[in-house]
């Protein structure tokens, strides 16, 4: 099946595995929370157990260095792509309000990025992610 949009998560490649997983989970939640059209129908098994709905399309996860993240962030902002950010400071906080305060403390060009989530038309996102590799 082909989709007209793309969901991408970009994580900094030098993070610990637990950090990559944490960043990916938090960033995916941002896309789910703001883009109702990306959520499919709830699931059910043959025994009648109900399960939560998930994204209706694949989520592609990319890995890059800090420079690649900064470059992708700059392109996304310039192209008005809906973007979620996760910064280093957020590893030291324990709740949403503190996370927002850490982001608010930095101008866009100096955010210590460790991850981004983007959702946009496929062609636009492909141009924005050009040069990045899928996470191994």
Task: Give a written overview of the molecule.
The protein has 136 residues and is of the alpha+beta class. It has one domain (5-134): Bit1. 35% of the residues lie in helices and 25% in strands. The strands form two sheets. A five-stranded mixed beta sheet has the order 5-6-1-4-7, sandwiched between helices. The protein has a two-stranded antiparallel sheet with strand order 2-3.
- The average pLDDT is 95
Counted by DSSP, the helix tally is 4
Runs in which pLDDT lies below 50 for 5 or more consecutive residues are none
Termini separation comes to 23 Å
User: What percent of residues are in strands?
Assistant: 25-35%
CATH topology: Bit1
* Main sheet strand line-up: 5-6-1-4-7
Structural class label: alpha+beta
Instruction: Kindly provide the name of the CATH class.
Output: Alpha Beta
Helix content: 25-40%
- What's the CATH H-level homologous superfamily? Bit1
Apparent shape: globular
Biggest sheet record: 5 strands, mixed
> How do the helices and strands follow one another from N- to C-terminus?
EHEEEHEHEHE
CATH architecture: 3-Layer(aba) Sandwich
